[in-house]
Every structure is written in structure tokens, then in C-alpha cells.
Amino acid sequence: ELLRLEASKFTHAMKEEHRAELIQLKKEQLYEVMALVDADSATSSRDRSLLKYLCTQIEPRPNDPQWRKITGTKKVSKWTALVGILVINALSYCALPSRPEIVEYGGYLVTVESLPLIRRYQHAAERAGKQDGYVGMDKQEEM
Known about the structure:
Radius of gyration: 36 Å
Largest sheet: 2 strands, antiparallel
Strand order of the largest sheet: 1-2
Distance between the termini: 101 Å
Oligomer: single chain
Strand content: 5-15%
Helix content: over 70%
């Protein structure tokens, strides 16, 4: 029984290995057919996408000009995207303002840049309140 189980595992492993080799062979064959068609005529964008994908799945073919062109274009695109991301990050980092100075004003923490705006609105609110006969909370507590 144990011998049969070992033989079954061995056969299964052989089938898996054979299946992987067969799949790789089919990828190579499909690339060859599509490369010939693509080189001779205008193919659909889906076919070109599949051909580009197959370039990464087959054995390297440095003597094939189409394989070199596709893999070279993929490398350039990948590096261009990477450099673009790095440049955007660097520019956004440089564009960030330095850490603002924080001060306490009226019991609140505010930035120094916002103080003139806060004071202007505070004075305007106080004037409007006086015109309406409103007495602020600070004034009521004093009374």
C-alpha cells in the first residue's frame, strides 16, 4: 500500500512537471505566432497587450528585435513612472510650508499667521454685538 502511495505521488509530480513544461511550450509557440502576425500587420490592442505580457513569460530572446523592442519599452515605461513619482513627491515635499509657529490666544492655540484674521473678526463680532445690544459671555460674568 505504501509503495502504491509513493508511486502515486511520483506520478502526480511528473504530471505537474509535464503540465508546466507543456504550458511553457504553448506560451513560446503563441508568442512566435503572435510576433509574426504583429510584425506583418496591424493587430488589435488586446493582441498587442497579450504579446507584451508573453514577452515576460517566455525565455529571453535577445536576438529577436520585436522582443527587444517590447521589453525595452516596458523597462523605459517602468523607470519613467518611477522617476515621475519620485519627482512629484520631491516637489510636493519642497512645496510644503515650514512648520507654522503656534501661539496661545484667548485660551486657544493658533498660528501666528492667523492672528490678524482672528482679531479682525473678533473686533467685528464685538462691534456687531454692541450694536444689537448683545453682551458677550465674558461681560456677563463680570456683572
